[in-house]
Specification:
binds S-adenosylmethionine; globular; alpha/beta; Alpha-Beta Plaits; single chain; seven-stranded mixed sheet; Rossmann fold
């Protein structure tokens, strides 16, 4: 029998530069990441791939990201690739994923851990969202997704019967699926610039039995002008959110809520300035590790 080959890349990097590597590993379509935090200042990331990754490009992209964070090359201590020919590897890897309780009302679980959800302390009455780690960003383990889900729980639904929500950069679809499950009957639209992410999001919507209730499409924000959404979610990155700032108001109702994330703490002020210039006021800020998620209200 042919054994499937898996590929692993280990990256040892300064704790302060961890995101410089994780964003690149996700961008290269890792099927999953493990983080070992055994040293005080450094972490070891182990990323798995089902096709051989281009390690030199990865190294260069991580170094570029470190530069953007004003960190030196020394922050990247080691990067090493290996192959794993092990039929049982996948089942070992699956064991590492646990259901995640988020906020007061949500639990995210991979398919192979769904049966454990009812046994979790505090799981009673929570809405279950099934997301398997795959080819798109958004499993709930990342601080930015968690921050968005917590703010979503707080600001959604609004008091209106026919509330509407736009998920900008939907990835796995996790936020849009949570939105429709939190508020059945609402109008939820999700889009991404990446067609692969849209395929994954559609599959996840199907698995969560909400495929008929969410509009999921490849698109761009400017195409939603005049659609008057009550809530807009955008877990992107600061460098994507800032240029999009001028497009958000046209897609929203006056007094609408914009939830943004994917923002490093030190970038929070720049994002706030860009959005304040477009008549948004900051109403909540949720720091988590080196990230911050923020909610804004459109003034008019
Ligand atoms: C950080 S992931 C967020 C995924 C998911 N919404 C979550 O919260 O976990 C960002 C997603 O935004 C998409 N994206 C990047 N730039 C975009 C843009 N200008 N418009 C829409 N989507 C974009 C990426 O393809 C990616 O799927």
């Amino acid at each position: 029998m042919n054994m499937k080959l898996w590929y692993a890349v280990e990256v040892e990097i300064a704790r302060v530069g961890e995101t410089a590597a994780t964003t690149q590993l996700w961008a290269m379509n890792t099927t999953g990441l493990e983080v070992s935090e055994d040293a005080a200042d450094f972490v070891t990331l182990r990323a798995y791939f089902d096709a051989a990754p281009d390690v030199e490009t990865l190294r260069q992209n991580i170094l570029n990201n470190l530069k953007l964070l004003n960190l030196t090359k020394l922050a990247l201590r080691r990067i090493e690739a290996s192959t794993i020919a092990d039929q049982d590897w996948m089942s070992e890897w699956k064991k590492g994923w646990e259901p995640l309780l988020i906020g007061r009302r949500l639990v995210i679980a991979p398919s192979w851990k769904l049966d454990q959800v009812p046994q979790l302390t505090d799981a009673a009455g929570r809405i279950v969202i099934q997301i398997d780690p795959g080819m798109a960003f958004g499993t709930g383990t990342h601080e930015t997704t968690r921050g968005c889900l917590e703010l979503l729980e707080h600001f959604w639904p609004l008091e209106t019967e026919s509330a509407s929500l736009l998920d900008v950069g939907t990835g796995t679809g996790i936020l849009a699926i949570a939105a429709i499950k939190l508020h059945p009957g609402s109008r939820v639209t999700a889009f991404d610039v990446d067609p692969e992410a849209i395929e994954v999001a559609r599959e996840n919507a199907e698995i969560n039995q909400v495929a008929d209730d969410i509009e999921i499409e490849v698109n761009k924000l400017s195409c939603y002008a005049d659609q008057e959404f009550d809530v807009v979610l955008a877990n992107l990155t600061a460098d994507v959110i800032i240029p999009l700032a001028t497009d958000f108001p046209a897609a929203m109702k006056p007094q609408g809520i914009l939830i943004v994330s994917g923002i490093l703490r030190e970038q929070g002020a720049d994002v706030t300035t860009a959005l304040t210039e477009q008549q948004f006021e900051l109403i909540e800020s949720k720091p988590d590790g080196e990230w911050v998620s923020m909610a804004f209200r459109l003034k008019n």
